[in-house]
Amino acid sequence: MELNDDELRRYSRHLILPEVGPEGQKKIRSARVLCVGAGGLGSPITMYLAAAGVGTLGLVDFDAVELSNLQRQILHATDDVGRLKTESAGETLRSLNPNVEVILHTARLDPRNALEIIGPYDIVVDGTDNFPTRYLTNDACVLLGKPNIYGSIFRFEGQASVFAPHLGGPCYRCLYPEPPPPGSVPSCAEGGVLGVLPGLIGVIQATEILKLILGIGVSLLNRLLLYNALDMEFRQLKLRRDPQCPLCGEHPTITRLIDYEQFCGVKSASKTNPMHPDEVTVQDLKQALDNPALGIKVIDVREPDEYRLAHIEGVPLLPLSQLAQRFQELDPGQSYYIHCKAGGRSMQALQFLRQHGFQRLKSVKGGITAWREHIDPALPQP
């Protein structure tokens, strides 16, 4: 089908590019792209793809808009706080370009629905912010033969690449065969992120998608692009497909989707995944705070900015980043409950203190996030 008058005007700056032209724009219009995540990366990715005229844009997310999102998630506005991100994003994208079909998948991507959701799309773009969904997205793309346009951000740094074994490149597992230990890599909610950073990385991902659709340029296949905003420096690492990769290697052992929360070590406590012996619940924490006679002291090991946003009354702060210099302030004979945002850093603090002679230690499972959910819902979002 030829471009109509509205499309000729809307995409005129594309049409005068010899590498695009009317035929290229029709390729863009025919493309079907799925973005996993409607947050920091998903915002610039989908907005620029909608503006460029990608015919069908799918968006997967299950979360609601929070005020803290607005510093970087430009799909959403202040009035959208509390709304589902898919609803807010769909409204923004359709307003930007009514020619684009926006398909909303308001669900958590999981092994039960991933193949069904991803299947109808040509290209998948990774806008996730957690390791289980990242590995799930990668594995589903490899099993279905879909290009996976990867991006990740943290603090002032970002990465981008194109994972597509069926096109001769590696997959995400070739680069990262195993996830990091739980809690060893803070999330953006714990470590922070410069608000403009996902804009830059997301635009790079959108650029790679358009190049793939048009069949032009040199893609990031077999390359990992690294960006440091503080130094304003880009670097590249050469990648190659790992012949021993359990997913895309010569003798794959992963032939179906698995339990990714269990694989990444973040599965919640259950009969099949009991609490760690060094953990206590937030109910135990409350009992310790309500009963000083128990002789248990509590420490918050988050960072000062996190503490100022939300903290448990009466619990002192000793940031994990300062623990090596300040642990002598603590009594090795005292009993301590240690908490952070979700339980990762508190376990790190416990392991460090145990190496220095402390024995009576427990990490609070779920941290202040679980405290807010189960004990004090009035506490500000940590």
Concise synopsis of the structure shown:
The chain has 382 residues and is of the alpha/beta class.
Account of the 3D structure:
The chain is α/β, with parallel strands linked by helices and 382 residues long. It has two domains: 31-263, 3-Layer(aba) Sandwich (Rossmann fold), CATH 3.40.50; 279-374, Rhodanese-like domain (Oxidized Rhodanese, domain 1), CATH 3.40.250. It contains 16 helices and twelve strands. The strands form two sheets. An eight-stranded mixed sheet has the order 3-2-1-4-5-6-7-8, sandwiched between helices. The termini are far apart. Residues 268-273 have low confidence and may be disordered.
Relevant terms:
382 residues, Oxidized Rhodanese, domain 1, 2 domains, 4-stranded parallel sheet, 16 helices, 12 strands, 16% strand, elongated
